[in-house]
Amino acid sequence: MAAPQWRISTDRSEAARVALAAGADQLHLDFGGAHRGPLLSDPGELRAAEAIAGDIPVPVLAVNHVNDIGLAHEHGVANPAAVALLERALDCARRLGVRVLHVPGFRRSLPVTDALRAGTADALRVLCRQAAAAGLTLAYESPLGPADSLALARSVDHPALRLVLDTGNLLDAGEDPLRFAGLVGAAGLLLPDLHVKDPAHATDGVGPTPGTVFDALPGLLRHSGARSVLVENDYHHSPTRLRTDIALCRTAVGLSHAKEER
After folding, report:
1. Could you report the per-residue pLDDT of 71-104, keeping only the tens digit for each?
2. Which residues lie closer than 8 Å to 262 by C-beta, 6 or more apart?
3. Which residues contact 151 (CB under 8 A, 6 or more apart)?
4. Where is the Xylose isomerase-like TIM barrel domain (predicted)?
5. Which residues on neighbouring strands pair with residue 2, listed in sequence order?
6. Strands 26-30, 193-196: parallel, antiparallel or unpaired by DSSP?
7. Cα–Cα distance between 210 and 212 in angstroms, integer?
8. What are the Cα distances from residue 209, in Å, to 110, 201, 215?
């Protein structure tokens, strides 16, 4: 069970303390930037992150700041500023010994047009080559459904790329996480690390009930072959919710295993 530093605190050391106290097995770190805290490329911040990795395993480095910059330009090419940021993050990932660099595609990086998707693929292709050379996986997440996600991944055409399943983001986009797991998994492109959180928006005029997304998790775990789960609700003001979410995930894992053994 993994906890997301960016959903706990911009202070990475504080986030690690909270994650360990809540029972997390792993901590996913954020590269920082803008309102997300200092950039990890700062030597002092990187040294502190290396110390954190000695206390709790850090398998993933996320670069959420790319959502503020934009992965691609409107005319269908990669945004050099975003690529440069991701290259700096990749260097930090090497130093930390993480196995996955997580690249999100939201807000200014949202691939809403054919040209932006082409530019996104261009950026991911460049980063995949560098990630592969470092022995890392490049994990891409967006609200695209399985067909569009697979089309984008196939245009990148690199074995280092995997697609992220995030329950809340898919549900907010009107997509079925179980269907995403089936189709993307069948293509061999699903990252075996699930992101689980409540949808942010109402469905049919009814607001989401906190925690109900975990009810479907046992089936999702069985269909996805996941090796880990990242709980990703907002824990900035509710660290007790983090402990609850981790406990719900552990229960779901037990239920999924029990079903498999029948």
Report:
1. 999 999 999 999 999 999 999 999 999 999 999 9
2. none
3. 117
4. 18-249
5. 26, 230
6. unpaired
7. 6
8. 27, 10, 11
